[in-house]
Amino acid sequence: MNKDMTIGGKWNILGKDYQGDITFNEENGMIVLSIYYKDNKEFIAWMNKPTEIDVITGKLNQEIKCTLTDCQIVKRHSDSFVRHHIVILARSMFLNLSKNKKDLLKFNEVHFHISNIIKWSQLSGLEYFDDKDYRLKIGYKFKDKVTIKIDDNTSVEFVPYLGSFNFDMQVEKLDISQHVEVHIINKKETTFDNFLETFKMISNMITLATSSKINVVEIKGINYKKYNGAVGTKKNYIKYQIITNLVKHDNVKNLDAERINTYLFSLNNIAYKNRLKRWFDSYEEYSSIYNLYNLGINNDVPDEIRFCNLMQALELLHTKQFKKVKKFFDHIDNKFKDNSNIIDLVKNNPNQSDEFIILKNRLIDLFINDFSLTKTDENIINNIDIITTIFSDTRHYYTHYSEAKKSKSLSGTNLKYGIYILDYLLSCFILKNLSFDIEEINKNRELQLNNIKNNKMIEKIINN
User: Fold this and answer.
1) Three-class SS string for the chain?
2) Which of 53, 241, 393, 440 could form a disulfide linkage to 71, CB 3.0–4.6 angstroms apart?
3) 279-334 pLDDT tens trace
């Protein structure tokens, strides 16, 4: 549904005042400012003005202060060299906030209202009571917020809220809603862009955990210097509404419709043993791997691309540990000291050089691990040469489309099985990287493992 809102206002742009209409959409974050003005001294609209403007301040017709940031002129039109039209696209809009310099647009807290992570967070306060005297008996009790310290300056809170509720039980229709907000809190004033970078890490984490995009419906900022009053030490901070096109409010699959045991991890899992801090600390190093894993979720990509994304993510994961051939061979000698056949398979591969580690050899190391799939399926070790050849040939074919690899690569249902197995492997390694122990990982991925075994995916791929 289109929820565009257009409001007139007065705007200060590069030191000069203009009348213009702003159109914005709270659901998709689109912000467009349209300026009409007359100037018979200009032949072309804003002929000497820059195309990019950091900050535009203004006041809407309702006397609401407004600040636009990261603005770009997308259209200039002049009519008879007198009447001019400028269209400006802004990345973010701050309501009730007016500053002259972008670097003053700083906050101590930014709150992100997320509508579809109730089940993942396990912060629902609603309970159903089975009582023979009542057809329907529902209670509500607030859950405690989950607070995680990231560093000396930053902490993250997951806070449950009870939304709209009509306490008049005699009306025809009752509306009960609840949601969770992510509060990013910094002791020091921080730019909004910095908060968005932090939130991007959190949203990517939830997407990875749930296989769904999150749905942000409202953003508000707080600066500890700005408040309407105080009762004792408690201050009534002003909450500034923020609209931005960096957060998309897509109509996506509702996380809460999914069973919780399909999640890679829940909020409680990631909050335990400081794992969220581990996510932040390792994000820069592993973000490419996380993003490759999420690409198939955030985009409707073909199976061939999804397979290549997962394969590349696994290869990147392995490369971070083993770049040099000698170190890798020493690792293989130690890991497979009781299985000389695998050592020979790796070290005597005619395609293996002293300069780089080939994909097939990386896959041998990745496929044979402490996760339940290897421990419960002897086909993995007994047929590791065949399995890794098929997976590496499939990667090479869908990367280069060489006819020589076409008949050897996975396709159709077997390609989907290959994707499922790679997803299992990568998700296990990601959990391991986030400090989950092997027992937790195996229990977490039990459903996925059972699907691999019950559908005989390994056997069917071997007989591809």
Assistant:
1) CCCEEEEEEEEEECCEEEEEEEEEECCCCCEEEEEEEECCCCCCCCCCCCCEEEEEEEEECCCCEEEEEEEEEEEEEEECCCEEEEEEEEEEEEECCCCCCHHHCEEEEEEEEECCCHHHHCCCCEEECCCCCCCCCEEECCCCCEEEECCCCEEEEEEEEECCCCCCCCCCCCCCCEEEEEEEEEEEEEEHHHHHHHHHHHHHHHHHHHCCCCCEEEEEEECCCCEEEEECCEEEECCEEEEECCCCCCCCCCHHHCCHHHCCCCHHHHHHHHHHHHHHHHHHHHHHHHHHHHHHHHCCCCHHHHHHHHHHHHHHHHHHHCCCHHHHHHHHHHHCCCCHHHHHHHHCCCCCCCCCCCHHHHHHHHHCCCCHHHHHCHHHHHCHHHHHHHHHHHHHHHHHCCHHHHCCCCCHHHHHHHHHHHHHHHHHHHHHHCCCCHHHHHHHCHHHHHHHHHCCHHHHHHCC
2) 53
3) 999 999 999 999 999 987 656 789 999 999 999 999 999 999 999 999 999 999 99
